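mind reviewing this stuff:

——
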Amino acid sequence: MMIYRQTSLCFVATLLLMGSSHVALGWGKIGHRVTGQIAEQYLSYQARAEIAAILGVEDLAESSSWADFMRSSPDAFWQREAGPYHYVTIPKGKKYREVGAPLQGDGISAMEQFRATLRDESASLEDKQLALRFLVHIIGDLHQPLHAGDGTDRGGNDYAVTFFGNPTNLHRVWDTDLVRHEELSFSEMAEWLNRRVTPAEVEAWSDLDPATWVDESAAIRDEIYPGGDREIRWDYIHNHRAIWQKRLTQAGVRTALYLNDVFSD
């Protein structure tokens, strides 16, 4: 599969599509690195060897935010095709399997492409590197509840809130502000979260169907919009801290389990 294929959409249509898409960047660098660091603890021997053959000394924490960095690349793949791969859209009251991916693709359809690339013995090293880095990133994104938006406010990007008095939007709060508020490095946060994971939880989170993950995100999404004056302060943090920490942890564990499956015989 050639990852850098030209799309048939004209540039004007692409700009219109991008204008209606999400523009925030997943969990932010800290959150994505947390998921990558946690994932490293659950990789099989075979998956670890295959990943090293593709990425060399680069670990999953380092590779996890690469797909966001590459949004600034002028290459046609990044400017015209890759944007929708960071999220899915699930209207309220629906499951992902009821709506599926749009024509331009989404996070789940991209995962299928990248999985096929990693299992294709004829794929180039460059294509496999892109596929692996983007796959790790997407799994993190799909566990952020607002990356399973309902199609009405660009995943909370258009939902204005204040975070301790500072104007922002709900998507950014969940991508970045809640994580940064802990004032931990990604390695500290990963260690703190991972040492609380039990074998029973790993088993419970072992469903490798991404549709399950985004249905979970959509269910959480509908419960996290603040009402009233949309002021996010300590009470909101108290009520939602365990939720986003669980989603980061699940994303890390599932990244490893998914890659173990991809690289299995």
